[in-house]
Amino acid sequence: MKKFVCPILLFLSFSIHAQVLTPAKPEATGFSPERLKRIDNMVQSLVQQEAIPGAVALIVRNGKIVFHQAYGFSDTETKKAMQKDNIFRIASQSKAITSLAVMMLWEEGKFLLDEPISKYIPEFKNPSVLKSFNAADSSFTTEPAGREITIRQLLTHTSGIDYPAIGSTEFKAIYAKAGVPSGIGNDTDVLADKMKILAKLPLKHKPGERWTYGLNTDVLGYLVEIWSGMPFDQFLKKRIFDPLGMNDTWFYLPKEKYNRLVPIYTGNDGKAKKVTGTVFDNVNIDYPKTEGKYFSGGAGLSSTVEDYAKFLQLFLNNGQYNGVRLLSRKTIELMLTSQLTLPDASPVGLGFGLETAANDFRSVVSLGTFSWAGAFNTHYWADPKEKIIGLIFTNMYDTPHWNIGEKFKVLTYQAVND
Description:
Blueprint: H1 14-18, E1 22-23, H2 33-48, E2 54-61, E3 64-75, E4 80-81, E5 88-89, H3 94-107, E6 128-134, E7 139-144, H4 151-155, H5 169-178, H6 191-199, H7 216-228, H8 232-244, E8 265-266, E9 273-274, E10 278-279, E11 283-284, E12 302-303, H9 305-316, E13 320-321, E14 324-325, H10 329-335, E15 355-356, E16 370-374, E17 378-383, E18 388-393, E19 396-397, H11 404-413
Helix pairs in contact: 2-11, 3-7
């Protein structure tokens, strides 16, 4: 398979590797303070229009925080001002963190990337593919897939597993009937139980045949439990969050952090309104404030912009941050190398959430930049060439203002002044 290799940052000094994120003046890292004010204008305009309740934005360059601002309100009803350390549901931004956990265990020799997942979860043996579907009662027929799902296919979302709640019509119905959840707000379920049910359901297509955004990363979270012998939440805390100083990243928040969690708003008519009901597959939107036990590697985490910046800086530092090494430089290179040549797939690194820029002529970002977003309008990217990290988190579900992430990106790069 021909692969596109992204330019990984190989020239960072040990001092950058070892440092933690600290504030610096924008001009000290090649940014124009005056041009950065355009970000303020863009976000404040959306707040004034009541299009979004508020947002937090952060820019890092060369390991220095050069822009960190909070805008508007975390709660419009009480007029509670948004704070820089507010906690947001990051949904699919959880995926890249799970991918890091997987690759840490790969480095320990726990598995090989092209092994079948049935070696570790026997229920996935001899998968089938959907042949026909009856919408009247969600019944279906299947045919043998003829091949096994591999761990690499889970990491690149080419297994054929679809998504509950947001996937295709057929599979939303099939998963709902079987009780397989999306991973957001399913606090009373148990990951292992649901993944074993998923294993017996049909695939959308044969493994490796196409790219399909699906529940792959939740399966990977369960595999982390199997390989490590630890509950997934404990593995993340002990092996990733504590070493990196990500003290505000959790599946279910400690009670003393409840007051920092932002409410969720909707706004498909252009105006922000607080969500009072449920979302996705009829789940409780306040799931981070429960004592849940379902650890969704694909969607379950909540975090702050600064915590997530620490995670991204680990990749720009070739696997080291805060004086600890979680991965080798060679593993980082592998993870940031596009694994796919499928015609309907964008360049996907080895771990979803590490989507790499395949060219540098259609976007302002550099070749090799990786990025993703979360369902509640949270966005991030990291640019290894420019050594830039950008994050903007809002708290909006179902909104026409999703492009705030792309606008923030443009306004970040237009402020580069070196």
